[in-house]
Amino acid sequence: MDFLHQLHDPEGLKTLIAAGGYLLLFAIVFAETGLLIGFFLPGDSLLFVAGFVAANADKLGVHLAIGPLIVLLCIAAIAGDTVGYLIGRKAGPALFSKPDSRFFKRKHLDNARDFYDKHGPKTIVLARFIPIVRTFAPTVAGAAGMDYRQFLTYNIVGGITWITSMSLLGYFLGAIPIVEKNLSKAVILIVLLSILPVILHALKEKRAAKAKFGADSGARVEPSIDA
Question: How many domains are there within the chain?
Answer without folding.
Answer: 1
